[in-house]
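Researcher: Structure prediction, please.
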Amino acid sequence: MKSMKGTLLLKKMKFIQSLNTLKHTLVPHHHQNPEVITSALSVSEPIKDFKDKEEEEVGAEFEDKDIKNNPLLNFEEKCPPEGKECVVLYTTSLRSIRKTFEDCQAIRFLLESFKVKFYERDVSMDLEFREELWRVLGCRVIPPKLFIKGKYIGGADEVVILHEQGMLKKLFEGIPLVLNNTLCACCGNKRFVVCFNCNGSRKVFVDGESGNELCIRCPDCNENGLVKCSICC
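Model: Predicted structure follows.
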């Protein structure tokens, strides 16, 4: 009888011990040691860093793909007036500075060889073009300067390098071609003609209040007595 009671007591003690162990395992997380929680959370940090790096690589891959499809994204957006969807070349026809003149001639010849339609703005023909160029670039510069679809491509050196690398042709994608090489019958592709109002003198005579003729500045032409060609400009 005593032996049976001892056996029951032993089983009861083992049951209580196992019950205490089960309770200990079911304790809520807020009763756990903070150091254990911190170490558990820190395990996820490398995973987060890996995900961030992966997202950056994917973003860079899409960016490279966009630049490959549209090389103009590599260039700074500086759009001259009415130059958002066309090619604009600022040049000078003055020969006073030989290198500048030759650079302008070289870039013009290069554009003509691609047979793309471009708008030449000669700063020596009209000071308005010079002020316009300085305003777009934010400083005083000398031509030639090339713009394609509102993007600033650069001067003679930059354009020649792009041509040698085979990149210039890609920048002209979407630009209309000029298949007819005939000269403008009005201006000979100079884009300007002599003012018909003052014949280039920049002066016109008008009747004054007292019946006398007054000489005033011609309102139609620029500082050189020229007006833009009505056919090709």
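Model: Confidence is low (pLDDT under 50) at residues 1-5, 36-43.
Researcher: Thanks, that helps.
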